Amino acid sequence: xxxGAAARLRLAGLCFFLQLLTIILFAAFVRYGPxxxxxxxxxxxxxSRRDPEPGSGYPRFRDAHLQALLxxxxxxxxxxxxxxxxxxxxxxxxxxxxxxxLLAQGLFYFSPxxxxxxxxxxxxxxxxxxxxxxxxxxxxxxxVNPIQLLLMTLLEVPLFACNEFILLSLLGISDSGGSLTxxxxxxxxGLMVSRALRQPRVDERGEQQDAGRQPDAFAVLGTLYLWIFxxxxxxxxxxxxxxxxxxxxxxxxxxxxxxxxxxxLSPILYEEGALQAAQxxxxxxxxxAVMGMAGEMLLTPFGALVAGFLASHLSLLGSRFLSPxxxxxxxxxxxxxxxxxxxxxxxxxxxxxxLLAGLATADAYGGRMESVFPLVAQGSRTASGQAWWQLCALxxxxxxxxxxxxLTGALLGxxxxxxxxxxxxxxxxxxxxxxxDGVNPEASDEELGGSxxx
Amino acid sequence: xxxGAAARLRLAGLCFFLQLLTIILFAAFVRYGPxxxxxxxxxxxxxSRRDPEPGSGYPRFRDAHLQALLxxxxxxxxxxxxxxxxxxxxxxxxxxxxxxxLLAQGLFYFSPxxxxxxxxxxxxxxxxxxxxxxxxxxxxxxxVNPIQLLLMTLLEVPLFACNEFILLSLLGISDSGGSLTxxxxxxxxGLMVSRALRQPRVDERGEQQDAGRQPDAFAVLGTLYLWIFxxxxxxxxxxxxxxxxxxxxxxxxxxxxxxxxxxxLSPILYEEGALQAAQxxxxxxxxxAVMGMAGEMLLTPFGALVAGFLASHLSLLGSRFLSPxxxxxxxxxxxxxxxxxxxxxxxxxxxxxxLLAGLATADAYGGRMESVFPLVAQGSRTASGQAWWQLCALxxxxxxxxxxxxLTGALLGxxxxxxxxxxxxxxxxxxxxxxxDGVNPEASDEELGGSxxx
Amino acid sequence: xxxGAAARLRLAGLCFFLQLLTIILFAAFVRYGPxxxxxxxxxxxxxSRRDPEPGSGYPRFRDAHLQALLxxxxxxxxxxxxxxxxxxxxxxxxxxxxxxxLLAQGLFYFSPxxxxxxxxxxxxxxxxxxxxxxxxxxxxxxxVNPIQLLLMTLLEVPLFACNEFILLSLLGISDSGGSLTxxxxxxxxGLMVSRALRQPRVDERGEQQDAGRQPDAFAVLGTLYLWIFxxxxxxxxxxxxxxxxxxxxxxxxxxxxxxxxxxxLSPILYEEGALQAAQxxxxxxxxxAVMGMAGEMLLTPFGALVAGFLASHLSLLGSRFLSPxxxxxxxxxxxxxxxxxxxxxxxxxxxxxxLLAGLATADAYGGRMESVFPLVAQGSRTASGQAWWQLCALxxxxxxxxxxxxLTGALLGxxxxxxxxxxxxxxxxxxxxxxxDGVNPEASDEELGGSxxx
Lengths: 454, 454, 454
Known about the structure:
Chains A, B, C: Residues 23-413 form the Ammonium transporter AmtB-like domain. Three copies of one chain form a homotrimer. Helices cover 67% and strands 1% of the residues of chain A.
């Protein structure tokens, strides 16, 4: 118990220090300048993605923030015994990551006045970054304590911002929904952190991904929230009012086909039981992840249906055949299966986007060319040139994510930060765990006694 | 068990076939034309209801899609033991119905170019159609398997589109919130399917509607979602910016009065216990259903209060006195009580709308006349003429729904599609059923063993 | 049992009477005038707060209504054993309060024509009022029956409207997010009602605030909803499109810092266990409450971080040290801890707002001065004069709330309204209480038998 109290006090101290640091940095550098209209994205404003129309920043901001919380919070609640505890840790990560991302992303757009100007669009970018952090934490859930998660956030956010800046601003890549910058980056970063943190005894608990005892209610709710809000999140940065519903609709089509695909393949791959709620949630996420890059490039709806259908198949096959290999051969434990749900679809989405970029013609796109591929519209690049750059961004991001993840994992694994090896299953739990059956006091007490961060 | 696996494989095959079919039809016919601005609803665009202002399609689209999922998913979770399983089936139905509705509704607006153009408004129409399908499935929940549900969707969607086209486009009926086209149609279609599927042994399980063991948490959440999103859904197609909040506010007033009415009548009708969460959910739905047609016709708020108050009383009386008659005399099993929650209020809403149409004067409506009753505003019709057409639409819709439902039910009842009579309670469950008490592994296994689609 | 049935019938009668009364008053006085555009707030329209831009009323209205339901419904579900029952009572209160508030607030803006004109903005104001009523009910939850709650609503709403009119219209106070008019007023009103209703035996059940057996799932969901919607609610009345995102962002920053503060102080103050989900919910509410007044006054984000960080510390310290004093010395039972979550932060927010008002300069605010401090912008007042008035509003509101609460509590405590002293724990439950473990019929029946309003 004393050890648990000491751990919580260390966490308290870290939270205090981080918040103080953020307050000081905000006081020194962050302003709501007179230029930060909701939609304006000037070099002075801190926004790394194209700006929406003025006055339209508000609803998208809300959806994006919502998505970063709900969709992933519930995905991370995947692991049955960690129930509400995962959501608390996610909240802590989100509360810090949003502030830290505004600073880190602002660094790359430092205005001549030496200030970082924030507006609604800055929050959207910060939420995209937070989403990547949550994806990464999904890979290591249950095997890190909150202190390690906060430090992972501290290190991952600047790396995310750096990769995003290189891809979107320097290389002129189009990735409005984050297939590459968010899903793929977050997944592979997390997987490398997981690998660096591997412990021998973890193999004994190979049941971590066994969904036999999940509280499916959370997964069900999470799936519904994904359907409601993720399409808005994924299309939050598509520039023109004319383009926006296409990206949105493409995501919906992709998610619909992905869901039907789950019903197709699941009974074939998994013979012992019926479909699980979490698989439907994964199907929805996969459908959205693959549409991240291609969402605003697809000109016909059936392409979205095909992409979603294929991505879901790929994800399910990966979950069935690839994850065991990752685990046994490469020693990469993937608690929430982020490789199948975010990694593979993110890569597939990038390849689809590359293909579509190469096929883009001014006739087909018309006025939309300027918002989707501005450099091609200006004439600075050809469509195939754009496709080549889109393709090059893939290994670049994967390398950055892998290197960053390995380094971060090595740092997190130092003895000072690790919890005692005696109680690995108590890590990541900051909430007193109360079973859903709140009317059973005896079981509650027993659960409580055994589950506090001791 | 082998039988359950065979059933799931048949479902997998059907899903694959349906998705393939949809992909092919989309590839052949469906486009995002350059005309499909978010708000534009030209003859080329596929939208069966009046269009909102350009640029305003986006938030309504999100709400409508949300409503089709949440409100009904939780209503369908009414039946305790089916918990999360119903939501999965609903998701499957929604994922397919949305695609199929876009095609079916598009058929009636086939452009000269031979293409179906979709935009945000098309999605709203598709969601209205999906809502009707979910209402129908509420009548047969627990007595059909997912294959039958998918086939019911396959048949109901074109019939819905046909009825909607006749009413809104040919007869010039005003029904922006779907009292008649969605609620009444869906309810009576489902009831006739239920009648055609009746089995003698069902009478033994007359307890299906007994709410004694519901997971009220789902009903509570569903009620809250209804309050949040249904008014937006129901007013999603009111044309002018000036009209829109009136319809919205009328729905809120109607739901408020309907809720108070539940507290008034429930203790009188049901003496043995306190109010149930599902009754509050029903009250909210009833208040919205009755406002579907009249929502934008009511010029004073108190009319909405009266309508909601009366509709709720009617619904509760129907639940108490009419449902047993339907069940015993007419052999119509109504699992989720859709007749009381959607059928009766839908009919009442139509009658109220008819009355208000007859009373409509240019002085009272002013500029709004053109959006609510365009034909009357143009002078092609008198107000009483409009009222006469509104009234004629009622038996027309009921006949179409009843005939379509009977035919569909007869088809679904063929031996090849029916599950074995030994396990009727296992139908409609595609999810492994996990009780909310996820920490009780013994009970979980027992439940699992007894609840998979075997 | 007979007593429970009699109580439910009395409640039914009261609901019928109140709805009838409201219908009659609406029929006589309430109209959707041709002037009630979504955004217009003329003297004829019933809106007590500044109007947003035309056409932008719609999304804020939805968020505000949502917030009044969800955020507080779940906060009020704090008390474990009352689970879904509290939400039903909250729904009843909301359904009535919204209608009554429209009438009461409309009274103060009676147009020359003798009519009350309502629009979307009126609903926002009515929701602010409803929020205050829910806060007050949080103080007495578990110790009042639904009849007493409805009568409390009947009395509190006009007092709220009166206080709001005096502050915002007569004194020209700026309080767009309701730190003073909603949070402080609601909290202290409820506390005085609680004091007037005190009973000796309540001291025996000092465990009411013991969160040991809460259904944390509700608190978790409530927290997420707060993060999503409260910032929109709190900034629903900030006038200009340019100002709006600042208030919104300030609320987010305040909530983020408040959340981290919970992780800082909680392990220090509470040694026996880990953080509870409800504490995170409280942290989010606190961060929003303190930003109510200052949200649109803060020109730099770090001020919001500091305010949220401090407010959360204050709230936790109050919960640890002040609540026991309130309970033992002043005999004020505070079931949901509304003093710490709404009272203290509301007062702190008022003080911060006063300070910022005094520091306001035309240079710093620019064009925003006119929307935040219109009288100062016109030159009718100096900044320090405005600050003085802001400060004077505090004791005025507290006195009005305290007096009104005491009177109301005295009325509610009359013998005729009180439930039998034998079963105080059965008050406030109108829903049949079903445990979350719906698959356990024996426990269900036992719970049912013991939990109906008998």
